[in-house]
Design a protein that fits this description.
The complex is a heterodimer of chains A (412) and B (335). Chain A is built from twelve helices and 14 strands. With 412 residues, chain A is α/β, with parallel strands linked by helices. In chain A, strands 1, 2, 5, 6, 7, 8, 9, 10, 11, 12, 13 and 14 form a twelve-stranded mixed β-sheet that branches. A two-stranded antiparallel ribbon of chain A has the order 3-4. Helix content of chain B is 38%, strand content 20%. The chains are: A alpha/beta (412), B alpha+beta (335).
């Protein structure tokens, strides 16, 4: 069995662009949640989101696409940072590019013509030649990455909603471990902070309308949690055979050791109340890593701040880690970043690198009073020290798709 | 649960250690295509050389596409085949097609009775997001201000109230396979890729590999695409992804893959053994063997083609999608 190491990590997030800024904010417990500025949301019930605060530097072709769909630029920037750290200039054969995302951006302005929702007129106009494309397919980011960095052997666009990015990394991990690929560039990118994205999730009742809570509106596991807050960003990791990376003198950020994926087969919008799918996913990832639950020293929860999800995840964690859960510190980084949907898993895998590299755990900054059924060993304070070996991170998605990853501290 | 997960994970981890080794066979096929409402209807029509019926879309009257037909699907009693209308409110057209095809494939293989839900995986492709225009129109109309411009303020104040609250479920790309999971009780490993042929081919490849190395006992693999949606048709033509002489089609196909040993043990009909699957980057022009007679079903095409080839006892298939990935499959008929 080949061991797999992370040799590159790049991130664009609401709490920082680039890993240094991201880890610094995480360690200090800085929230990136605030009023929506990407569009006028004042008449929406939801006013808050975790937006990327600064412009991302992009080459011209990517910048042009990102004007219409910012998440494409996030993907590119995260990828460029990850590849740079891994010392890679080009992608080539024996490389897998697998990135996850969730939803095409729909620009509602595009279906208006002469003051009316007149699709026929829009269609006529669109077919004239130089009109902007009516749709933005989800593989656009992969195309942009390939244009800049070359064509890998296989390119995958994973669309498994909130589990997409974690699935991409898990699949890439297995692909490198098995020898199918020598290199995997994996992760996720997303932004639903647009009128239809926010509006659609508002209609589903998934987002908090506690707008007065501002920075601390996303409240995973708290008794006053009312829903999640949408975030945006991207994170990409470079995975390589560990021994090969060592031989080449590359910096190794951590080792990926386990992955599991399951389906709830229960409901589109609600998790199985027994937490069966979530528990099986964690158990699979642990078994894949050859670990018993007692080996895990920290969990980065999915922790969305929605009523049902947090309770079910807490139940599933207590079930899988029966007898040890009280000693395992649990982080909920969405309290700072909001929910980055398809990018959540990769960004939170990046949050798992912080304890290994800096020796501190990211806190749940909005946890005041633990909600009923959400009892876990929550990390509350910034700077909580960590000296463990294994970390598990969860991603559970709309539609009932679940993914868990286990990473190990790298001892050089 | 833990014991089961343990067995699962031990097997699952081996996916990384092994190249495909076990013999994998197709024991179930489900399909909805312009040629037929079921796999057998579609395969018969294909063998007989029939072509899809084409019809212009009323939504495109008065546009340059008004005379161009899209392939139309046969009449189907959806509620009857899906056992009720309860879930339809969550479903896009692609999801309906996918669920119909998946149910037919699972029934064909009697898979639900023979395999644990946790040992059954879903590996799927999905097409471009294709919202129903009538669902979007009201929301947009309510959001146009006095200057005829789209207004976010009006969307928040009025447009959202006029919107189907389940709209997100209809446009999220992972929903069609997730609905299959929910309706059929499938709980195992899963991968969903989008939006073109090469991504569905990747899903089929991953399913074949997962069964071959024992990561799952049974894989439901396939795709659904609603390329005949009016907005999608315009986009496909606008972007040059559809040649002048081509026309779009909606369709879906799922197959059930399992190891030959389990099929023989359970005395199941084996359509074909999958000897090899490959997906390689290619600069070749797009080749879709279905396009002339059935229209371009994009993400659904590799799955439909594999289903048809399996039913007709063919020995190989080859196609190249718009995403520049060439898909090749070697099939072997078993005595």
């Amino acid at each position: 069995m080949r061991r797999v190491g992370i040799t590159g990590f790049g991130v664009v997030s609401p709490i920082g662009i680039g890993k240094s800024a991201f880890w610094d904010s995480l360690s200090r417990g800085v929230s990136g949640i605030g009023l929506i500025t990407r569009f006028d949301a004042t008449t929406f019930e939801v006013h808050l989101a975790g937006e990327v605060k600064k412009e991302v530097a992009l080459p011209e072709p990517v910048a042009a696409v990102s004007t219409d769909d910012p998440k494409v630029g996030f993907a590119y920037a995260a990828c460029a940072e990850a590849l740079s750290q891994a010392g890679l200039v080009r992608l080539d054969s024996r490389t897998l590019l697998h990135i996850g995302t969730s939803l095409e951006i729909f620009d509602l302005k595009k279906v208006i013509y002469d003051g009316k929702a007149d699709f026929k007129a829009v269609a006529r106009d669109s077919l004239k030649g130089d009109a902007p494309p009516l749709q933005m397919p989800l593989d656009i980011a992969s195309k942009m990455i390939m244009e800049q960095f070359g064509r890998p052997e296989q390119v995958l666009t994973n669309c498994s909603a909130c589990a997409a990015g974690a699935q991409a990394i898990g699949h890439g991990f297995h692909a490198v471990r098995s020898g199918r690929f020598e290199l995997a560039v994996c992760g996720g990118f997303d932004s639903m902070i647009n009128p239809l994205g926010v509006g659609g999730f508002q209609l589903l009742g998934a987002l908090t309308t506690d707008n007065d809570r501002g920075l601390y509106a996303c409240r995973p596991f708290d008794s006053t949690r009312r829903g999640t807050v949408l975030g945006e960003g991207a994170a990409i990791v470079v995975l390589e055979p560990l021994e090969k990376a060592e031989a080449e003198g590359k910096e190794l950020l951590a080792e990926v050791v386990g992955y599991g994926s399951t389906l709830d087969a229960y409901s589109l919008s609600a998790p199985d109340p027994d937490g069966d799918g979530a528990a099986r996913t964690m158990a699979l990832a642990l078994e894949d890593a050859g670990l018993s639950p007692s080996a895990v020293h920290h969990i980065n929860s999915h922790g969305t701040g929605t009523q049902l999800n947090d309770e079910v995840e807490a139940r599933a964690i207590r079930r899988v880690f029966s007898g040890t859960w009280e000693n395992i510190p649990v982080a909920a980084t969405k309290s700072m970043t909001g929910h980055l949907i398809a990018a959540a898993g990769p960004v939170e895998l990046g949050a798992c690198l912080l304890p290994f590299l800096k020796g501190v755990l990211p806190p749940n900054v909005s946890l005041d009073r633990v909600g009923q059924g959400c009892e876990l060993n929550h990390v509350r304070d910034p700077g909580t020290p960590f000296d463990g070996e294994y970390i598990l991170t969860n991603s559970f998605g709309f539609g009932g798709q679940n993914a868990s990853l286990v990473v190990r501290k790298y001892h050089g | 649960m833990r014991e089961q997960a343990g067995v699962l994970a031990n097997l699952y981890s081996e996916i990384s250690l092994m190249q495909p080794s076990g013999r994998v066979v197709v024991t179930g096929i489900g399909m909805v295509t312009p040629l037929g409402a079921t796999a057998s209807e579609s395969a018969r029509a294909w063998r007989e050389g029939r072509c899809a019926i084409r019809q212009p879309l009323p939504e495109l009257t008065g546009t340059p596409l008004e005379d161009e037909g899209v392939a139309i699907l046969p009449d189907i009693d959806i509620a009857d085949r899906l056992g009720g209308r309860k879930m339809l409110k969550y479903m896009s057209d692609a999801a309906v097609l996918g669920c119909l095809a998946a149910r037919e494939a699972l029934q064909d293989a009697d898979a639900k009775a023979r395999f644990l839900p946790e040992r059954t995986g879903i590996y799927a492709g999905t097409g471009l997001a294709a919202a129903n225009l009538s669902e979007v129109r009201t929301m947009v109309e309510e959001s146009i201000d006095e200057n005829g411009q789209f207004s976010c303020r009006l969307l928040g104040a009025r447009g959202l109230a006029a919107t189907n609250p389940l709209l997100s479920f209809k446009i999220l790309a992972n929903m069609p396979p997730c609905l299959i999971s929910i309706m059929e009780g499938i709980k195992g490993p899963n991968l969903i890729f989008t939006p073109w042929e090469g991504q569905t081919a990747s899903a089929l490849l991953e399913a074949w590999r997962a069964v071959s190395v024992g990561a799952v006992d049974c894989a439901l693999a396939g795709a659904a695409d609603n390329a005949a949606n009016p907005a999608t048709f315009v986009y496909l033509r606008q972007s040059g992804l559809l040649d002048e002489d081509e026309y779009p089609a909606s369709g879906a196909s799922y197959i059930v893959l399992e190891r030959l040993e389990t099929a023989e043990r359970d005395r199941r009909r084996v359509y074909v053994q999958v000897e090899d699957m490959q997906l390689i980057p290619s600069d070749e022009r797009v080749t879709d063997p279905l396009s002339e007679r059935m229209g371009r079903t994009f993400a659904a095409a590799p799955a439909i083609l594999l289903g048809l080839k399996s039913m007709n006892g063919s020995s190989r298939l080859s196609m190249c999608g718009v995403d520049g990935q060439k898909f090749r499959v070697e099939l072997k008929a078993l005595g």
